[in-house]
Amino acid sequence: MKRNIIHIDIDAFYASVEEVENENLRGKPVAVGGVSDRSIIATVNYKARRYNLHSAMPIFMAKSLCPDLIIVKSDMKKYRKKSREIFSLIKSYCKNIEKVSIDECYLDISDKKDPVGFAYMLKKKIHEKFGLTVSIGLSYNKFLAKLASDWRKPDGFMIISEADMPDILYNLDIKKIKGIGEKSQAKLRNIGINKVEDLIKLDEEFLVDMFGKMGSEIYLRIRGIDNRPVETKRIRKSMGVERTFLDTNDEELLKSYLDNYSKELAADLEKENRAFKTLTLKMKDSEFKIRTFSKSFLNPIKSYQDIYKHSIEIFEKNYNKKKLRLMGISASNLVDFDIFQLSFKDLY
Ligand code: TTP
After folding, report:
1. Long-range pairs of 268-274 with CB within 8 A, sequence gap ≥ 24
2. How many domains does the chain have?
């Protein structure tokens, strides 16, 4: 049976939340991030995007491109709370919801008689209650719904039907396909493959050779095929935080990022009442080479202090002084904290 799936993405999320809260910001270019020149931007509003500002850009660079830029210090607690409120409003209209990030979700609305009307109704309700605009994509699978929501940002609505699919997909640049990283893009462009219409000529084996398991996925996606269900009760196998930043080998700065990530990860674990037994540090250097290092614990951990201490330990042991452009930490081997406490108590 043909499904109807929508992907909802809040526009310039953190910046929009700040604009709604403070009317002095409206109509002006706004960035949310760290406030010092050495820090980077989390996001910018659409006004600031006109100056070519974007996420992960260092503040000093953003200021030089847009001298009138207003920088607001990010407040994760506030954005998390807002995100919970928005998702709970959406959930009151559709239970088949899969949250994929702080500001994005999929809904399976195959049971709704008027999917277009439903999508517009949701846009209106979210705007009325929170003053925020969202972009929505409607299609018959998750991959195309996400592609559609990205198409007409901000405040967009786009439908990709089966009939539209070839025109939209085949013209797409290969960089738009998830799983094709910058290195692979360069290799493909070298052999004259720039668009999906070129990529589609390659057989599955070639793609598997090039991308591993992901190759089969890419093979299907570029043909508009994606059978993944909207998973309403996704059991998370891991939780993590990662960010791209301006290439640096400044160890103090890198450690300060780990400090921030540890706080964020601890807050996420707290919210989901989880602890974990394996911590992984990921480092991507300026040549895009990724290295990961893990450490496992007999007793699960969850506090900011523990996460920070072990992240620093893994970092100090393995950092090779090369300039990094991305770093992340993730928690796996997750355990439910209540169960953990229970079994712990039972033992003593
Ligand atoms: P996105 O959905 O990627 O971006 P956005 O909502 O700001 O803008 P768009 O309208 O293009 O969707 O990210 C959601 C939030 O996550 C964003 O508001 C800030 C945060 N974020 C970071 O902190 N660092 C990053 O590098 C990115 C991409 C996002």
Report:
1. 268/239, 268/241, 269/239, 269/302, 269/331, 269/337, 270/302, 271/80, 272/236, 272/239, 273/336, 273/337, 273/338, 274/239, 274/302, 274/331, 274/334, 274/335, 274/336, 274/337
2. 3
